[in-house]
């Protein structure tokens, strides 16, 4: 982790603008708290990725939140490409005066340089593929840049080809739970049933209708999340031998349906 952070720190020195990718469903929990420290006052474009899975009204609030902090903010869907086209203009706008003033000594203003930073699984590779598309043009190594680093010229900006990976704040149990629910961390490192029960508590309290409709439940939802998890498993025919519901399978299924936004587009962090 320390090595990855150093690499990000080194690469940050080369760029004018940082493109910070966050998960639009958890725009706070999917950030690395250290980025502010290691990037200093560098201009930033916050990309709320996976916006197709998040609550659109809350995504707008999060955009406003980041703009109020002085960043540019944009919601995107890196799978289908929504919002991606706005990114180069925001990078140029954020780089603004810096790159133009460098051009006043009789040279043409140079293109702003930027790099992408984000936690694992936030969608960095998908985002880069969408941004670069077919028009990718490698500009080769620039003087003074360590061999191996490549810049991709795209839409009037130069993008460092390898994104910076930073880690989320696993130590915080609330954050870890949200990372687990959204699929940002691997199933092996958390208790699936525990996460599913916590999610059921939240869904029953905030979106009971979505739960009832998705699973065809008539009347009130059971107050005990364990009973609810059994009920959902039963509705999906997930039985062990006999008529005992397989609660692990029920939990796995619930998380899958939640991550695919089958119960609705939800945002777990509030600005
Ligand atoms: N629905 C949705 N899924 C996305 C989006 N961007 C990435 N993903 C999914 O998120 C997962 C991780 O993406 P990837 O680009 O490999 O993440 P990386 O580790 O940051 O490079 C993949 O399974 C993608 O299908 C998006 O905008 N919307
Ligand atoms: Mg990747």
Automatic annotation (TrEMBL):
Family that this chain belongs to: Belongs to the TRAFAC class YlqF/YawG GTPase family. MTG1 subfamily.
A cellular component annotation (GO) from this entry: cytoplasm
Keywords, alphabetical: Cytoplasm, GTP-binding, Nucleotide-binding
Its biological purpose: Required for a late step of 50S ribosomal subunit assembly. Has GTPase activity.
CDD domains: YlqF
Full protein name: Ribosome biogenesis GTPase A
SUPFAM superfamilies, A to Z: P-loop containing nucleoside triphosphate hydrolases
Domain of life, source organism: Bacteria
CP-type G domain residues: 1-168
GO molecular function: GTP binding; GTPase activity
Keyword Secreted (UniProt): no
Localization per Swiss-Prot or TrEMBL: Cytoplasm
Name of a matching Pfam family: MMR_HSR1
Example GO biological process: translation
InterPro entries to which the protein is assigned, alphabetical: G_CP_dom, GTP-bd, GTP-bd_ortho_bundle_sf, GTP-bd_ribosome_bgen, GTPase_MTG1, P-loop_NTPase
Residues reported in the UniProt entry to bind GTP: 49-52, 164
Gene3D superfamilies associated with the record: 1.10.1580.10, P-loop containing nucleotide triphosphate hydrolases
